[in-house]
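During the first year of the project, the team set up a workflow for recording each protein of interest as an amino acid sequence followed immediately by a discrete structure-token representation. This format lets reviewers and collaborators read both layers of information side by side without switching files. As required by the reporting guidelines, we include two representative entries from the current panel. The first entry is reproduced here exactly as it appears in our internal archive.
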Amino acid sequence: MRLDQAEFIKRETTILVVGPENADAFRKYWEENGLPFTGLPDPAHTVLKLYGQKINLFKLGRMPAQVLVDKKGVVRFVHYGHSMSDIPDNASLLRLIDLMLLKN
């Protein structure tokens, strides 16, 4: 997503990354990696539970999930991955965002 950050910005799309770490560990990771996204530490798994994201202990944690929420707060798309390689590519997400923008 970092490579296409300008395309997401052009579509007025904010990328929010939710992580399981506490605030200090999350901040450290964010700073070390220079991530341009908004980050939200979620050590109590509050957001995870809200959106139904799965945990797989055999794969050591959360399974990837992508959720597109429109400006009114309505969830328009959800993808629950089975591994870190099971994530929609940026082009697919951008097309979905374009469709959302056309409908609003």
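The second entry, processed by the same pipeline in the following quarter, appears below.
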Amino acid sequence: MGRLECICIIDDDDIYTFLLKKTLLKSNICSNIKSFENGLVGLEGIKKMIENEETLPDLILLDINMPLFDGWEFLEEFKKLKHLILKPISIYIVSSSISQADINKAKFNEEVIDFLTKPIESSKIKNICDLHLSSTN
């Protein structure tokens, strides 16, 4: 299995983010992990990466229910940046929601690869990584 250059976690749950980072590091998928506490901070972080010509994420793990600026708002604004991004970025919704409306909304959003329910197991993360690497080669 290959490694990703960068993964971004956009989630307001500090404990979940901490555990997910530990899982990612332990599985040796990626050592460059950035986290943002809501969609607005995440969007600003990605804009800054573009401006500073930093490594953009290969993968974004995006929560949908966050205060201030939720995952859906992030996706709408992210679309406006796509013309500035020269690499494929796989976005997965990662939520504790089991709402069929949220699942359907994610399914029909062209930016979203899949809807995953928290917590994500390390085997699922490895599968996501492999899928991204195989689709970009």
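For the second entry, the following points were noted during internal review. The mean pLDDT is 91. The beta strands are 7-10, 33-36, 59-62, 90-95, 112-117. Both points are flagged for discussion at the upcoming steering committee meeting.
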